[in-house]
Amino acid sequence: MRPKRHPPSSRSEIRDQVEARSKIWCERGGELVLSEWRLDLLAAVGETGSLSRAAERLDVPYRTAWHKLKAVEEQLGVRLLETQSGGAGGGGSSLTPDALELIRRFRRVRQGVSELVSKRFESEFADWLG
Predict the structure, then answer these.
(1) Domains and CATH numbers, the chain
(2) Helix or strand or coil: residue 92?
(3) Cα 130 versus chain centre, distance
(4) Which end of the chain lies in a sparser environment, N or C, as judged by fewer CB atoms within 10 Å?
């Protein structure tokens, strides 16, 4: 039985349509390898030039951020960060070419999955949520 639809009562309801959301993560042997959060952390390192500042931005302790990215490196077998020790000019971190490629690919997958989920959701629920 098809549910009875009520027309939106205002323009704001039209803009506030229900949207499907999804999250992506990768596991190997039940262990988390890569997630949207870890990718965001990696991207933040690239944007800030520092693992410390990236950790601050994501409101996570430096030690946690360091361990998460080291775990990704170990699981994937690639180096993600180039680091410079402190000193007069201060230290910093930059992303390796592998890290940049990982970000690009993961974002493409995330966008593709989001598009598929939206299309499927719309096809299943269009008559309910119109």
Answers:
(1) 23-129 (1.10.10.10)
(2) strand
(3) 29
(4) N
SS3 assignment, position 37: helix
Sign of CA pseudo-dihedral 19, 114, 24, 42? negative
pLDDT tens for each residue of 46-77: 999 999 999 999 999 999 999 999 999 999 99
* Under 8 Å between Cβ of 51 and 93: yes
Greater confidence, 12 or 64?
Answer: 64
Task: Report residue 93 CA to chain centroid gap.
Answer: 20
Enumerate residues 6+ apart whose C-beta is below 8 A from 44: 53, 54, 57, 58
Q: In terms of pTM, does the model score above 0.70?
A: yes
79: closest CA among 63, 94, 98? 98
3-state class (DSSP) for residue 83: strand
Return the number of other C-beta atoms located less than 10 Å from residue 13's C-beta.
11
